[in-house]
Amino acid sequence: MSQNFDVVVIGGGPGGYIAAIRAAQLGFKVACIDEWKNAQGGPAPGGTCTNVGCIPSKALLQSSEHYEHAGKHFAEHGISVSGLGLDVAKMLGRKDQVVKQNNDGILYLFKKNKVSFFHGRGSFVKQAEGGWEIAVAGDKPETLVGKHVIVATGSNARALPGVPFDEERVLSNDGALRIPDVPKKLALIGSGVIGLEMGSVWRRLGAEVTVLEALPTFLGAVDEQIAKEAKKAFDKQGLKIELGVKVGEVKAGAKGVKIAYTNAKGEAQSLDVDRLIVSIGRVPNTNGLNTAAVGLQLDERGAIVVDADCRTNLANVWAVGDVVRGPMLAHKAEEEGVAVAERIAGQHGHVNFNTIPWVIYTHPEIAWVGRTEQQLKADGVKYKAGTFPFLANGRARALGDTTGMVKFLADAATDEILGVHIVGPMASELISEAVVAMEFRASSEDIARICHAHPSLSEATKEAALAVDKRTLNF
After folding, report:
1. Do domains 3-157+283-351 and 355-468 have the same CATH topology?
2. Which of 93, 125, 366, 380 would be 360's cystine partner, CB 3.0–4.6 Å?
3. Which class does domain 170-280 fall in?
4. What is the Cα Rg of the chain in Å?
5. CA distance 45 to 234
6. Which residues are catalytic?
7. How would you classify the pairing of strands 208-212 and 240-242?
């Protein structure tokens, strides 16, 4: 006997669980299916982000930052530390507890909003009377029928060709979060967000970290001036970054990994490390979804094909998040999930891809929204730029963290903000002001005229806006 719902969501990550909750708020009878399991085999909704991505990585980043501060920076504040120790198992245990709190929080939200949760893998069966028949494979198999179906199955880590993840020596983001002890030597292939964040964690804890990047430029998606500032900081920290490399044979053994590669000069190189983290992107996850049974259209990347409103080629079937086009970001998935739920309700849900913020949680943090200077130049857009260094910010000095800057890019004729780029302390928090400003199509002058609290890091944002008109007050 099948159970009928107005909306069935397949996937309980940021896109899925948020879509389910919003649909329930709008009065629909909603089910959400998710297969993630915790260590005890119980449900662990939240997807990659909560279980092996955004949340646990930030927990480890925080722990490793505390360790580095205690060992290297407390003395500057007159704080003496003796007998500094490191308990990796306890650190990982705290990370796991943070994950569990988020898992439990989502289950509570489902209960609060009367969303029916099913623990297992959801897959299409066929079109049925009243919608689409969905099978739930798990400890308690179920059959659901949804008038509307929202697919939010996320993405998986991309492996090197011929080098599968064993999560012991060759690690995805999952294994990188569970390394039981600090490796003496650690390599990363790929200098993307996941690679840099995980590399930062283990470098702070004592590992010798080498990053091998195929592209000739560092962080090509980031504004070039900001990326150069970040690389200077990473180089100073001891993070070894090699650009323009071509990775050859990778051999994993019982005690380590041997990597053959060619450097930017064309010279053959060899690197022996204890562990290797592969961070070369992610691929849409449609595993076990049984798309062929219903004719759900996929593109050449394996992503579900959707239109601008996240509609698939099937009536009343929608898809959001990493499994569709666009940036693979948790907050992008959340916004699409809300928008789809509202569209099902006949409302006008909207997602503005031009104002989706990006963040890399290294130290210094890197955050941006809008277009980069190189993009504006390539498009022939006339613009004005203004920058302000954290070195001249009173709060940053008090924090003892003056690396980086805020950069504004504004239209030369209208002064409308086209992009804001930050490298420095708390960039992930500071970028929100820029997102709000750009959503309201503000000018740099608008931000320059807003009173910012003193002393605060946000004053650097105001000063960078003032710099667009070449009238900074503190630099």
Report:
1. no
2. 366
3. alpha beta
4. 24
5. 34
6. 454
7. parallel
